[in-house]
Amino acid sequence: MNEPKQLHCCTVSRSTIVEEVLTTQANVKASDKPFSYEDMVYIPGGNFMMGTNQKEGFPADGEGPIRKIKVDPFYIDTHTVTNAQFKAFIDATGYKTEAEQYGWSFVFYQFVSQKMADKVKQKVQGNEWWWVVEGADWNHPEGPDSTIEARMDNPVVHVSWNDAKAYCDWAGKRLPTEAEWEFAARGGLEQKTYPWGDELTPDGVHQCNIWQGNFPETNTEDDGYIGTAPAKTFPVNGFGLYNVSGNVWEWCSDWFSKNIHRRGGRNNPKGPETGDARVIRGGSYLCHYSYCNRYRVAARTSNTPDSSTGNIGFRCVRDPQ
Ligand SMILES: [Cu+2]
Fold this sequence. Notes:
It is a single chain. This protein is an alpha+beta fold. It has a domain at 46-95 and 151-318: paralog of FGE (formylglycine-generating enzyme), CATH 3.90.1580. The chain is 14% helix and 18% strand. It has helices spanning 83-93, 98-102, 114-117, 161-171, 178-186, 260-263, and strands at 40-43, 46-50, 67-71, 74-77, 104-108, 122-124, 127-134, 213-214, 218-219, 249-255, 278-281, 300-303, 312-313, 317-318. The strands form 5 sheets. Strands 12-11-10-13 form a 4-stranded mixed beta sheet. A 3-stranded antiparallel beta sheet has the order 1-4-14, with no helix packed on it. The protein has a 3-stranded antiparallel beta sheet with strand order 5-7-6. A hairpin with a 2-residue loop joins strand 6 and strand 7 (127-134). It is globular. Copper (II) ion (CU) is lined by residues 9-10, 283-284, 286-287, 292, 294.
């Protein structure tokens, strides 16, 4: 059986717009600065119950069945890579992101200025809230007339999987496997819906940055944010991680498959040998229970490795030395 086309409510892939895919395998040299564990936490590893059989989930995404998985200890960033951190990488290496090479990226329509909106030629069919904005990139998240100046502590966005990998190579880190990501995201709790428990807003208090109101028309911003929130917002989970649910999707190292569980090992699974799309986890500020409750900690989807949007970022891990 074929995998579904990589067209998801909450993300969108470049292949919906372009036939030819750039395959940039940039050779980025590791930074010569001494490595710092600043803003990383040690995850002890061990066994955990991965996935979910919940009915309110998306079984078609391959969220289940629940299986016992073992991961080795690792360090993980407490927050997603920020604009400030990514800028340091660009300044040091001169790296060009794929959004810059293609000359455009996907922006949520409400963020596009009137001036830019008049120039937008393409909207994604079936996902009309995604606009193809020329000149949108990590440094201009809503197009050439926007800046990250007031958002240096927010997650970098419009970064492809390939861009994220290049950053990791420079930073002396790597992307988490999907299993590592979920182990860390669960924060030591077993089989809870969210990183903090089973209730979305315990005592009416928002725990993450997702959509409130009617998607895609009105975001009431009850949680305080319409786009990204600073990378260190909302209470941390049991391991000290910020924003594993909501805010931005996070790239994992694995290729995506709906039924990897049948062939993947139970010890440090690394996903399929090959594929078309990479796993992303955590959901984003555009997720809403009415159509995409993928801010659940077991939820998963994917995007092609050259794709970039305004709601995908990443955090890194490092093996104990
Ligand atoms: Cu979503």
